Amino acid sequence: MHIFDAIYKKGNMLQCKFSDNFIHPNYLGAEFPLGQHLITAISYSKEYVKELYSDLIKSYISYLDNETENNFKAYEQALFKIDDYCIYLHEISYKLITTIKATHPRYSLSDCMDFINSFDKNTITNFTNQFTRIKKEVSVQFKECILLWNTAVELLLDEFDLSINMIKSDISDICNSPATATGLDRLAWLDVNRRIHFFDMDFPVRLSVDLGEAVDSKFFVSQKTDEESIAYSISLCTTEQMMYYDFSSSLENNLPFKMCKNCNTPFIPKGRVDSLYCDRTMPGFKDKCSVIGALNTYKNKQPGIEADFYAARKRYATRVSRNPLLKTEFEVWKINAKEKLTAYRNGEISADEFKKWFMDDEWSKI
To answer: N or C: which terminus of the chain carries fewer CB neighbours within 10 A?
Structure first.
């Protein structure tokens, strides 16, 4: 299914133009940062996404039952919320909404064949049995509609999991590449067969009408003007292709893919590039990994180590005030001290290593 019609790269941003306008007649496309939605795709919370789709299903059925402006806005917000969470779920939204539209309200199994034919035999049988049971009801109850379409979401998400397994493995391998590797050279860290897969990828370039500026990361159908500009775009057929283009573009832009030291899941730091923890809240935890990491680092600290550091710093400052010839050395020391303190707080060096460093500087003993 050709979901992404044209892709434009604008610095560290990607702009996608949708091929479909069925699920929203005025929603032309979306803009998103390189890599960030890809990371979300390979580590998404399935339970959270199920809730998003449950809201989409309810709002869309309500809209089909009563096509009012308020019902459409509720459906629109539910759709946008999914795309904002992860643009790579848009194809699932398209398949789901298309199938609901084709069958509602008569629930004809023949109108559902395009949907179920992409699944294995057992899955088709189970889904068909549910569909047939609902059809036998004198009147289809709203809650039964929700049950059926929630099952459809489960099937689509299982399919999505299969499609992202390889790229998830590739990103994990890249995260474990040597620190000296940068840009596309990080692909050299992959297994030879995976490297060949990347080398064989083809992203056809063409000229297209530029999408222009996004409004809250969304592009909408607007009036044609004489000021439209033409730009190079990439033509991609599948969501998986789009993911690989996003990934290779992220590597080319040297985005720092890392493994979170708490949840062991890939992430791209949004702030400091030396961050060791992601900002996700993993299932079963109340706090973000970054918060948990900071707490763990604090617990592992040697008692009073930072107090000793600041006491030493004050002592050195006093010596410099008495001997101005040490000022240059002290300024250099302060820069190094800031880096060492950060490394200690992030757990990159031990308390003993840190203390030995700030207590043993020869310049301070002159």
So the answer is: C
Distance CA 86, CA 83 (A): 5
| Contact by Cβ (8 Å): 57, 69 | no
Residues 6 or more apart whose Cβ sits within 8 Å of residue 243: 38, 41, 88, 164, 167
DSSP labels, 60-82: HHHHHHS--HHHHHHHHHHHHHH
pLDDT on residue 205: 94
Which residues pair with residue 8 across a beta bridge?
15
User: pLDDT per residue over 117-152, tens digit each?
Assistant: 778 777 778 788 777 777 666 455 666 678 888 889
pTM of the model: 0.76
| Beta-carbon count within 10 A of 302 CB | 13
The answer to whether residues 25 and 101 touch, using CB atoms and an 8 Å cutoff, is no
Q: At what angle do helices 327-345 and 351-359 cross, to 10 degrees?
A: 180
CB count within 10 Å of CB 58 equals: 17
The tens digit of pLDDT for each residue in 85-102 reads 999 999 999 999 999 998
| Mean pLDDT of the region 222-248 | 84
Cα 7 to Cα 302: distance, rounded to the nearest angstrom: 51
